[in-house]
């Protein structure tokens, strides 16, 4: 290889001086004649434990599915895959030894002869082609020292290298070195580099490729085989493919800088007899650029939602099992070389991914100009999204930013004052770190609403003040110091975009999440934590977002505990006006009325708010809390999210109340994973299984360090679980969740909404088939954006999800279990029906399910027979004739209800109540009737006589006419 005459002058004297100095030092060490200064330096060398050097190697962990397919190589600052020396091909070892330390197998850790040889090689090459440090010295420096260029460090390096040489075999040293050496592009070690550059294992490399890797350590940045470039920065570079770094897309551009160094590596291998002439010539002609193939570190067609959940749960388990801090557990996860087997069902995950990709076109709600009209908002005349009070929530981007993304202020939105520029609160608000420009929205080509984050502009505290209107006052001093901050065309002004970042990506609204869980094992099979998001560090709404669960809370906090404590599906709750502590009418049923006497089954089917509150009051808050804890909803699967707030934690705003526990109006809420796991306990015959996204974790040697040993406990009896299941099943058959039905499969589940009757924030449906439990949530990240026909959305999405994931599964109904008996009952009393019950034209008799031993033994006492007047339905009197009497079936109440004391509110069963007053219709006695008949006869005869007299008079005076009076005028 010819020397490059254009390189900087090479100062031979520097190497000669260093060589002589090191020779003297090493000679002194070997001779045992250590000078005082050298002794002092050696004493300061760090203590080393050579027995643990191998353990100090960090290695990236991987996540695989049950079949071993790679889901993700967990990205860290150091990407490493540790391999044993036996698995490293000889030509790979030779390439590094040839260029870094050709006398590696002969020296004692420090190579005095090698120092002189490197000087001569560098002189011969006319460049710095090799240093004087051996591989052992490089390893000593990498493990225990730094790159400080001092004599002290070189002495310590030599001392540690010789200790390592005494204690470790050459293969052990080389193995550690080849697993630690930095080879550019975040790759540490030869296996990581082989994967990073060629997507190969070491045994599949060619000699040319091995030499290319061996060329890198001299200058890892300059000699990396490719450079990662942002798409906008790529010019004439040769693009080799796409890579993803920290969730962002880059192009891999070929970097020819390594080529000369690679040729030198090959020449050294030939010189040292490691390869022959034919191999050398073949390697020189090999096209490395064509061989470069940047890898996929994760499955390309999957989002990161599942693997992000896996990582979070593995950290939690490592902390609890090994008593680690979070930082220690994170270090194990990222650097411990763990192999984590996920519970994912790849087919199912892809089905969910496809559904969410087409979310806008799913039949979830009514169509509008913005696609499915799931959200409700008011647009101002200017096109901004406003709340009911007229406050702008989101600006139309065109009203906030110009084409250069400069924030624009019109003449009425700013004012120059004596002490500075006043930006009014219409678009700006003051913050402790500067000022915040309000968020904006855009509409995508697919007609989706996309919200964009507020723009934060940092201004020193001394130059910024809060204006009286809530806007900001920017001091003249800042404007003078930054003359380009404000740009103007005379009427409008704009803030230059170099002072802030704009959230161009935004977030689609509404958002959604889905969890699919195998309720028999606790394995999470698929999960989606949002839509329209890419990358690694994205919000997983299924696991990390707390949302108010609404009525999905009722079965688990109210009815499951009730049915587990001697209440039955036939137990009666009177749906009547209820009042809170302030004597306010609360809660209001979503259906806008009161239905009166109602069974627990019907209360679940129609999602009666009043009845849920009344039943919770009967069983008690403490009893409900016991069950919520067993369901994993108090200090459950995600304890760092403070989901259930106790009175002890916050006496004033907490969840120990009927609004939170009966109706799901919690302070913060629950995650989809938690809620789905609670329903999975019902599906699993009453036994809760902790939801886990991984089945086992192995260390780098294949030892199992974590088995999937989820926490389990019996929450409710099998019988109670079956009753809840059947009630939730009927909810999807004739209740409010009929849209959830999937043909061929029994379905059980519950809707849930949060917010007010007119302003809904969350839409839930959580339920199960015989195969899986699935939780679905839809809502806006910003609670100020409301949903429309809220309960339908999640139910419709749930149907879409289950239709997809159950494809190919055999049709199936729910198994029967729990020692259940069927008994015919009266739905107004929950007791055995009587003839009066059967006579109720509303249909008050049905067959109900009971845990054996809880079925009713007494007959209904609510239905009664009453004989009423057919004229008005009131009780008959002693005067009511038999032909106006009717004996009918009515209901009575154990506790009286007076509508006049409740604003005149009547429950819908009020007309079926037994009358308590008597008919006011007056019926005369026989004597009175005879007297009336006599009087009627006399009147008749009198009228006949008058008619006869009149006719006789007309006959006697046939020509008589009645004269009419004449009129005169004056």
What labels describe this entry?
6-stranded mixed β-sheet; elongated; 43 strands; 970 residues; alpha+beta; disordered N terminus; 29 helices
Structural overview:
The protein has 970 residues and is of the alpha+beta class. 33% of the residues lie in helices and 19% in strands. It is built from 29 helices and 43 strands. The strands form 14 sheets. A six-stranded mixed β-sheet has the order 12-13-14-20-21-27. It has a five-stranded mixed β-sheet with strand order 2-1-8-33-34, with helices on one face. The protein has a five-stranded antiparallel β-sheet with strand order 29-28-38-37-36, with helices on both faces. Strand 33 and strand 34 form a beta hairpin. Helix 3 runs parallel beside helix 9. The N and C termini lie far apart (151 Å). The N terminus and C terminus are likely disordered.
Kindly state the percentage of residues in helix: 25-40%
Strand order of the largest sheet: 12-13-14-20-21-27
User: For the CA atoms, what is the radius of gyration?
Assistant: 42 Å
Shape assignment: elongated
| Major beta sheet summary | 6 strands, mixed
Total number of helical segments?
29
Instruction: Look at the helices and sheets and give the structural class.
Output: alpha+beta
Beginning-to-end CA distance, first to last residue: 151 Å
Query: What is the beta-strand fraction?
Result: 15-25%
Mean pLDDT: 87
Number of strands: 43
Low-confidence stretches: 1-21, 28-36, 368-372, 962-970
């Amino acid at each position: 290889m010819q020397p490059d005459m254009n390189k900087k002058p090479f100062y031979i004297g520097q190497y000669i001086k260093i060589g002589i100095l090191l020779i003297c030092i090493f000679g002194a060490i070997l001779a045992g004649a250590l000078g005082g200064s050298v002794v002092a330096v050696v004493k300061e060398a760090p203590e080393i434990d050579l027995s643990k050097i191998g353990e100090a190697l960090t290695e990236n962990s991987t996540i695989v599915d049950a079949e071993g397919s790679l889901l993700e190589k967990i990205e860290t600052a150091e990407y490493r895959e540790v391999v044993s020396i036996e698995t490293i091909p000889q030509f790979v070892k030779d390439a590094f030894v040839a260029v870094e330390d050709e006398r590696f197998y002969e020296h004692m850790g420090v190579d005095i002869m090698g120092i002189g040889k490197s000087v001569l090689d560098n002189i011969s090459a006319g460049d710095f082609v090799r240093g004087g440090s051996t591989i052992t010295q490089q390893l000593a420096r990498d493990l225990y020292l730094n790159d400080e260029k001092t004599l002290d460090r070189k002495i310590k390096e030599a001392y540690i290298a010789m200790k390592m040489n005494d204690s470790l075999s050459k293969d052990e040293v080389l193995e550690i070195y080849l697993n630690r050496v930095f080879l550019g592009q975040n790759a540490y070690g030869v296996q990581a580099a082989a994967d990073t550059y060629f997507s190969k294992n070491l045994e599949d490399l060619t000699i040319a490729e091995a030499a290319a890797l061996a060329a890198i350590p001299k200058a890892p940045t300059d000699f990396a085989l490719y450079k990662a470039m942002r798409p906008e920065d790529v010019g004439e570079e040769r693009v080799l493919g796409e890579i993803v770094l920290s969730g962002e897309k880059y192009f891999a551009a070929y970097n020819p800088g390594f080529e000369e160094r690679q040729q030198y590596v090959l020449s050294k291998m030939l010189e040292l007899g490691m390869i022959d002439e034919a191999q050398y010539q073949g390697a020189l002609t090999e096209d490395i650029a064509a061989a470069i193939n940047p890898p996929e570190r994760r499955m390309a067609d999957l989002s990161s939602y599942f693997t992000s959940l896996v990582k979070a749960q593995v950290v939690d388990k490592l902390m609890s099992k090994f008593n680690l801090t979070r930082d220690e557990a994170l270090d194990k996860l990222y650097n411990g070389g763990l192999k984590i087997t996920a519970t994912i069902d790849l087919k199912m995950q892809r089905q969910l991914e496809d559904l969410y990709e087409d979310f806008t076109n799913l039949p979830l709600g009514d169509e509008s100009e913005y696609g499915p009209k799931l959200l409700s908002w008011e647009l101002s005349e200017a096109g901004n999204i406003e709340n009911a009070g007229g406050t702008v929530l989101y600006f139309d981007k065109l009203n906030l930013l110009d084409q250069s993304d400069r924030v624009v202020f019109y003449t009425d939105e700013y004012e120059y004052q004596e002490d500075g520029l006043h930006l009014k609160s219409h678009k700006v608000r003051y913050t402790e770190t500067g000022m915040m420009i309000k968020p904006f929205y855009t509409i995508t080509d697919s007609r989706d609403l996309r919200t964009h984050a507020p723009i934060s502009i940092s201004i020193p505290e001394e130059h910024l003040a809060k204006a009286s209107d809530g806007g900001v006052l920017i001091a003249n001093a800042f404007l003078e110091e930054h003359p380009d901050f404000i740009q103007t065309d005379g009427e409008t002004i704009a803030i230059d975009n170099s002072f802030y970042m704009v959230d161009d990506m935004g977030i689609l609204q509404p958002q959604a999440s889905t969890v699919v869980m195998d309720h028999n094992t606790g394995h999470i099979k698929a999960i989606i934590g949002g839509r329209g998001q890419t990358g690694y560090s994205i919000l997983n709404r299924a696991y990390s977002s707390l949302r108010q669960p609404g009525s999905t809370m009722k079965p688990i906090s109210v009815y499951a505990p009730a049915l587990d404590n001697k209440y039955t599906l036939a137990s009666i709750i009177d749906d009547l006006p209820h009042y809170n502590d302030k004597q306010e009418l609360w809660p209001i049923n979503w259906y806008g009325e009161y239905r009166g006497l109602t069974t627990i089954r019907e209360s679940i089917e129609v999602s009666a708010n009043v009845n849920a509150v009344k039943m919770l009051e009967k069983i008690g808050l403490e009893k409900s809390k016991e069950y919520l804890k067993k369901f994993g909803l108090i200090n459950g699967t995600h304890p760092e999210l403070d989901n259930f707030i106790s009175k002890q934690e916050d006496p004033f705003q907490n969840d120990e109340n009927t609004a939170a526990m009966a109706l799901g109006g919690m302070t913060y809420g629950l995650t989809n994973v938690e809620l789905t796991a609670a329903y999975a306990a019902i599906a699993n015959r009453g036994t809760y299984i902790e939801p886990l996204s991984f089945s086992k974790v192995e260390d780098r040697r294949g030892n199992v360090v974590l088995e999937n040993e989820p926490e389990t406990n019996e929450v409710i009896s099998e019988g109670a679980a079956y009753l809840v299941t059947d009630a939730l099943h009927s909810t999807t058959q004739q209740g409010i969740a009929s849209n959830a039905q999937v043909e061929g499969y029994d379905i059980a589940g519950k809707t849930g909404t949060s917010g007010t009757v007119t302003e809904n924030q969350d839409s839930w449906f959580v339920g199960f088939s015989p195969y899986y439990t699935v939780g679905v949530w839809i809502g806006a990240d910003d609670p100020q954006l409301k949903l429309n026909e809220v309960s339908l959305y999640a139910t419709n999405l749930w149907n879409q999800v289950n239709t997809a994931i159950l494809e190919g599964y055999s049709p199936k109904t729910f198994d029967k279990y729990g020692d259940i008996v069927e008994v015919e009952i009266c739905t107004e009393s929950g007791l055995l029906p009587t003839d009066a019950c059967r006579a109720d034209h509303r249909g008050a008799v049905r067959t109900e399910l009971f845990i054996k031993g809880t079925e009713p033994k007494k007959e209904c006492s609510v239905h009664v027979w009453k004989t009423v007047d057919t004229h008005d339905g009131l009780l008959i009197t002693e005067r009511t004739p038999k032909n106006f009497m009717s004996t009918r079936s009515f209901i009575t109440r154990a506790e009286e209800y007076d509508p006049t004391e409740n604003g005149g509110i009547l429950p819908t069963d009020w007309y079926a109540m037994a009358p308590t007053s008597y008919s006011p219709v007056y019926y005369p006695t026989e004597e009175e009737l005879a007297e009336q008949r006599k009087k009627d006869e006399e009147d008749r005869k009198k009228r006949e006589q008058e008619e006869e007299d009149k006719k006789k008079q007309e006959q006697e005076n046939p020509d008589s006419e009645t004269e009419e009076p004449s009129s005169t005028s004056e």
